[in-house]
């Protein structure tokens, strides 16, 4: 059942889990449809659901059973594609990796679009500025000379230098949790730097200097204030702030 609410979170009781694990939960979702109103508003949806289900399951149920206009992105539903990052109870998370039982379901669970990117509708934001910053750091292997006739060898030690940053799924949870990015959309943002790091520290790549120069820009790594929001937000457990620090150090020492 859906109810429009005037303002942000109050608290309302919900049922204790039954022996079957089913609980009654209220999802307070930030709705926005520019074809209907220029203003966003909160709307409550209450449903009975298994406490071990994920927030993504709840969003599907709401869309299928209560309001087909509810709009959100998702693809893999298993933490791989990175398309369903959203703010859940005020923190960036993937809806498909967030279990309802882990996020205080006795209170209304707030769900809203990630910050710092223009909301197009409900939980969907315009990802183009995010992907433009990603493209700008040349996120691909650059080599010169002839095509190799066999694989390019790399020691375990060299591979380990950028292992962490290979795990990025481009969900934007880090970039959209960064206060610098909220205040100034020109900053490359943590995700672009993570993906630059992945190639700068790859011993097979030859464009490290070029990428460092790109990030030496006024909107590059020096904008980072080391707040660690990005590291806390990353659903892949990447040490984002550490990667940014390593890129800064490489810029100073020119050793990578
Ligand atoms: S670094 Fe983590 S939070 Fe940032 S885009 Fe990649 S996977 Fe998402
Ligand atoms: S739907 Fe693919 S990561 Fe959540």
UniProtKB/TrEMBL annotation:
<feature type="domain" description="2Fe-2S ferredoxin-type">
    <location>
        <begin position="23"/>
        <end position="117"/>
    </location>
</feature>
<dbReference type="InterPro" id="IPR036010">
    <property type="entry name" value="2Fe-2S_ferredoxin-like_sf"/>
</dbReference>
<feature type="region of interest" description="Disordered">
    <location>
        <begin position="1"/>
        <end position="20"/>
    </location>
</feature>
<dbReference type="InterPro" id="IPR025192">
    <property type="entry name" value="Succ_DH/fum_Rdtase_N"/>
</dbReference>
<dbReference type="Pfam" id="PF13183">
    <property type="entry name" value="Fer4_8"/>
</dbReference>
<keyword id="KW-0816">Tricarboxylic acid cycle</keyword>
<protein>
    <recommendedName>
        <fullName>Fumarate reductase iron-sulfur subunit</fullName>
        <ecNumber>1.3.5.1</ecNumber>
    </recommendedName>
</protein>
<keyword id="KW-0408">Iron</keyword>
<dbReference type="InterPro" id="IPR050573">
    <property type="entry name" value="SDH/FRD_Iron-Sulfur"/>
</dbReference>
<dbReference type="InterPro" id="IPR017900">
    <property type="entry name" value="4Fe4S_Fe_S_CS"/>
</dbReference>
<dbReference type="Pfam" id="PF13085">
    <property type="entry name" value="Fer2_3"/>
</dbReference>
<keyword id="KW-0001">2Fe-2S</keyword>
<keyword id="KW-0560">Oxidoreductase</keyword>
<keyword id="KW-0004">4Fe-4S</keyword>
<comment type="similarity">
    <text>Belongs to the succinate dehydrogenase/fumarate reductase iron-sulfur protein family.</text>
</comment>
<keyword id="KW-0003">3Fe-4S</keyword>
<feature type="domain" description="4Fe-4S ferredoxin-type">
    <location>
        <begin position="158"/>
        <end position="179"/>
    </location>
</feature>
<dbReference type="InterPro" id="IPR009051">
    <property type="entry name" value="Helical_ferredxn"/>
</dbReference>
<dbReference type="InterPro" id="IPR004489">
    <property type="entry name" value="Succ_DH/fum_Rdtase_Fe-S"/>
</dbReference>
<dbReference type="InterPro" id="IPR012675">
    <property type="entry name" value="Beta-grasp_dom_sf"/>
</dbReference>
<dbReference type="InterPro" id="IPR017896">
    <property type="entry name" value="4Fe4S_Fe-S-bd"/>
</dbReference>
<keyword id="KW-0411">Iron-sulfur</keyword>
<keyword id="KW-0479">Metal-binding</keyword>
<comment type="pathway">
    <text>Carbohydrate metabolism; tricarboxylic acid cycle.</text>
</comment>
<dbReference type="InterPro" id="IPR001041">
    <property type="entry name" value="2Fe-2S_ferredoxin-type"/>
</dbReference>
């Amino acid at each position: 059942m859906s109810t429009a609410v005037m303002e942000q979170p109050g608290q309302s009781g919900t049922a204790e889990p039954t022996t079957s694990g089913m609980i009654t939960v209220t999802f307070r979702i930030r709705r926005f449809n520019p074809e209907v109103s220029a203003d966003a508003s909160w709307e409550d949806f209450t449903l009975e659901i298994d406490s071990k289900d994920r927030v993504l399951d709840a969003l599907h149920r709401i869309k299928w059973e209560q309001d087909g206009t509810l709009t959100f992105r998702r693809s893999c539903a298993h933490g791989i594609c990175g398309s369903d990052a959203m703010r859940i109870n005020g923190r960036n998370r993937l809806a498909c990796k967030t279990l309802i039982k882990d996020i205080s379901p006795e209170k209304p669970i707030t769900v809203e679009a990630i910050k710092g990117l223009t909301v197009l509708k409900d939980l969907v934001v315009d990802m183009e500025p995010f992907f433009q910053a990603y493209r700008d750091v040349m996120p691909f292997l650059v080599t010169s000379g002839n095509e190799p006739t066999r694989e390019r060898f790399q020691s375990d030690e060299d591979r380990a230098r950028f292992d962490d940053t290979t795990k990025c799924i481009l969900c934007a949870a880090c970039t959209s949790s960064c206060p610098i990015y909220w205040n100034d959309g020109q900053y490359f943002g943590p995700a672009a730097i993570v993906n630059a790091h992945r190639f700068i520290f790859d011993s097979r790549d030859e464009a490290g200097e070029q990428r460092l120069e790109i990030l030496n820009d006024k909107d590059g790594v020096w904008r980072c204030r080391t707040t660690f929001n990005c590291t806390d937000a990353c659903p892949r457990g990447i040490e984002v702030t550490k990667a940014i620090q390593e890129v800064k150090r490489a810029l100073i020492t020119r050793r990578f």
